[in-house]
Structures are given as structure tokens and as C-alpha cells.
What does this fold into?
Amino acid sequence: MKEMSRIVKTVTNFVYGFIIIFGFYIIAHGHLTPGGGFQGGAVVGSAFALLLVSYGSLNSQKFLKKDILSLFEGFGLILFIVLGFSGLGITFFYNFLANSGGWFGNAAVIGVNPGNMNTGGVIPLMNIAVGLEVLSAFGVIVLTMASAAEFTKKKEKS
Amino acid sequence: MSSFVEIIHISTLIMIIIASFLAVVFKKLLPSVIALTVASLLLSLEFYILHAPDVAIAEAGIGAGLTMAIFIFAIRGTR
It folds into this structure.
């Protein structure tokens, strides 16, 4: 698939960094504000789709590699299931970090949320794991669709 | 105040219906996909008005972003 015009590429160069940073903001604030791992990962995946549509599938093989994204996907899933199993002394998915004073361990205030990032126990770590998995999975899906369209076009020409 | 919210509600629903009708009527494929994306984006606005910002973010990311990209790849593959 060939690349689009110069206007589209210039607007993409301005915008895609901000979209990726906004997606990571949604992932990191998942326990305080609306959104979470899945929504932030979907936003970052739409930034990957924008890059792939504007630059074409052949040029974007340089900065979006399928093997690295697949590795990140496996790492996110392993992190999630390890966090689930590590509270197994009491129950499965036990929140063992909440109110402990360490990482993400401050006590949450009852009522209106004052915006303390350091609360929530194991939930922010699980949000980060789910966000990593979802963004790399959407990147792999979009890359596979682009290369499959290219392959079909090449096969029909020959 | 509630009448203002109801006016936005009803106009958003009417625009969703118009955009979905245009997605069926258009003869070319690329304007049809753009109309479908506009309908999905207005549906995301409707979710936000109904106090579900979680679903609105997910709908705007998946329904308006990734679905349009996959449809554009499919259309370019047929050409």
C-alpha cells in the first residue's frame, strides 16, 4: 500500500505524539479518572493505525515491528497473571499492596477523590499490564491487516 | 437546564440516523466508510451525554479509529 499525500504526512507528524501521550495518561490515571487499561490501549492503537494509514505499510516497517509488539503483548499478559497469583496467600487477585504504605499504598479518602496518584494498591499495576497488552495487540492486528491487503493485491496482479 | 440536554440528545440522535442513511446510500466506497465513522463518533458523543465516559472513550478509539483503518485497508486491497 503506497503512502498518502504530503499534507496528510505533515499533520500526522504533528499529531501522533500527542495521541500516544494522551493514551498513556489515560492508562496511568486509570484508578482515578474515567478510562483504564483497555481504553488507553485503544487510543494508542488508533495512533498506530494513523501512522500506518498515512505512511503506507512498506515505509512503516522501519518503526513498527511485529516481533517487538508481540513480545510486549506476552510480557503484559505474564505481568497480569503474576500479579493475580502473587496474592494467593489469602485469595486469588487479593489486593496485597493496598494501605501498606509502600508502592501505591496510601489510604484512599472516602468521598470526593482528591487526586492522590499513590493509592489503589495493585490496581494501577494491573492497568499498566492491561494497557501494554492491548496497545501491542491492536498494533499487531493493524499490521497484519495491512500486510494481508498488500499480499492480496500482489497475488491478483500476478 | 434539562431541556437543553434534551435538545442536544434529540439532535444527536437525528444526526446519527442521517449519517447511517448516507452510509447506505453512497455509491463510492470511501465516502460510505467516512459516513459510518461519523455515525460511530456521534454515538460516542451520545454515550458521553448519558454519563458513561468509559464507554465513550472505548467507542471513540475502536469504532471511529481502528474500524476506519481496517475498512480503508480492505478497500485499498480491492483496487
Observations:
- Residues 2-78 of chain B form one domain.
- The helical segments of chain B are 2-25, 29-49, 53-78.
- Chain B has one domain: 2-78.
